[in-house]
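Lay summary

Proteins are chains of building blocks that fold into shapes. Our project writes down both the chain and a compact code for its shape. Here are two examples, one after the other.
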Amino acid sequence: MNDYVIAIDQGTTSSRAIIFDKSGSIISSGQLEHEQIFPKAGWVEHNPKEIWTNTREVIGQALSKANLTRHNIAAIGITNQRETAVVWDKNTGEPVYNAIVWQDTRTQHIVDELAKDGGVERFKQIVGLPLATYFAGTKIKWILDNVDGAREKAEAGDLLFGTTDTWVLWNLTGGVNGGVHATDVTNASRTLFMDLETLQWREDILEVFGVPASMLPEIRSSSEVYGMAEPNSLLREVPIAGILGDQQAATFGQAAFDKGEAKNTYGTGNFLIFNTGEEIVHSKNGLLTTLGYKLGDAAPHYALEGSIAVTGSLVQWLRDNLGLITSASEIEALAASVDDNGGAYFVPAFSGLFAPYWRADARGALVGLTRYVNKGHIARAVLEATAFQTREVLDAVNADSGVPLTELKVDGGMIANNLLMQFQADVIGVPVVRPVVAETTALGAAYAAGLAVGFWSDLDDLRKNWQEDSRWTPSMDEEEAERLVRTWKKAVTKTFDWVDEDTK
């Protein structure tokens, strides 16, 4: 019996497969981390072949743990790290280079060159995004410009590009033997190449970048049958029926389907998505305009997004680079050992600042230090940096939308940290709400796939599944909260203009 849906969650640090039942509850899962490759300062890569191998293995783990087979699975959903670019040979299935990860900053010179004509907002009215190293378009151009023979192969029609959803889909549906080369609107909207209104690739922008249109996947909706798993797969003949970029998937998994609803994901970075319904809202406050979701033939839903590069990865940095903690979970107790931040503020602009500043010239700074500050204060400053950055993004969302948020739904690994969640509520001044099922990214992909095959009948079915687990309400004096935010903003200015042409 087809009683379950499986979601493949191809993330920045690992690949997972999670099986859900009709109530949205987790039945079983499998997970494998993949190598983080850092060839040079600012460069971040993954091995696409390792990602695909791990994806197949975690599917097997999830099925075997639950003692299930393909006959129990109604549909497959895919969610993925967005903006991470894979380019491969369609005839051999071999990547021509490692996947260049969304965090990678090597393409800043390409951004600078393209921005000479029209500035960083040159294409923003069309694609919703500023020119930045974050997005996939500059990464494709770098591969074509720097990998021997790549441009010639691309112009001959032999190379394909995809974000990691496309790479997984192509391989899962047969690869060189008829693999489906497609993506959904949410991932396409993160390339710098998709027109927000037509939901099609813009030939004129592709020409400016020097990227052949033949490389790009077909743009499809987020919920439809793209193809069947190939005969040698453990899931053979099961339909792949849902694709959503990870942040949009988390929003969908939070049942934030309607205009004015929002969620914030606390992961490697933080990503706040605010649903603007069927209206395209162009930000005047440093946010991205992106696709929220598109269900089959229905009208697309758009969103404003505030992308923050470094939040959870700052805790990892404290653990791995400084050794102040031995596991990420220890930071809460260390931060709770002091009453406040002791005047210390940590701005983690390790690869520049994303929303709402978009300053590639910024670098990380720990400011306000005195002899009084100890490791507890630094741990607290690390956690508070996440909350302060979220507050700034939320201010931008409120200004752009004109509809102040009344509560913030949260998900991701860091929401287990109660101290952080309380401080978050204090500095944004509205309740913070955590759901029972915290794996909202995978759940959103499962929902999209299940809707396409009738496993769930409509969005109301999904709304009924959402349940509140915990709620934090603001308890800090409002004047004190505003003083802290004001000082944080002063700290942010200390990170500007650090990178010069000769800065190493």
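And here is the second example, written the same way.
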Amino acid sequence: MINIVLFGKPGAGKGTQAEFLKEKYHLTHLSTGDIFRFNMKNETLLGQEAKAYIDRGDLVPDSLTIKMLEEEVHKNLNSKGFLFDGFPRTIPQADALDAFLKSKNWEITATVALEADDEILVQRLLERGKTSGRPDDQDEAKIRNRYQEYNEKTAPLMHYYKAQQKFHEVNGIGSIAEVTERLSTVIDHL
């Protein structure tokens, strides 16, 4: 079983690359954003609980996010592996994910970070915002705030996974095919 955490700032290409990686390596793609939206749209108990936090303007607590993620893993126990996208975002989340996977006698195989210059990513998101309809991709100040959040909360995970010798950086600039090839080279050598 191969379990990969895909990192990268907004606009780095995580979603695009996740599509290729899940097909090539037969992985189950677990995007926390997609999981939240599914649970809230279908008004599951966990979705209703998450919506209550969001409606109050609060962050969904790690414990609830982890419960949703665990449910998705349990739905896919026959998977050849998982591609975690958008989770973990903090060290406590990484600890919780490690503990959950350990309870299944699994572990994170590797973490891969798509690296790119902020200025290039800002332009990518502003371009995407013209067609995506996502308001958070249309406001440069909001984009830069998202990068600040990433630097403060998610970037420390690089050290967490480097200490476990499970961290790999991949240049996220270039054509989709070029970036996919770089990612494949890393994964093929795990």
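What can we say about the second shape? Strands lie at 2-8, 28-31, 81-85, 110-115, 167-171.
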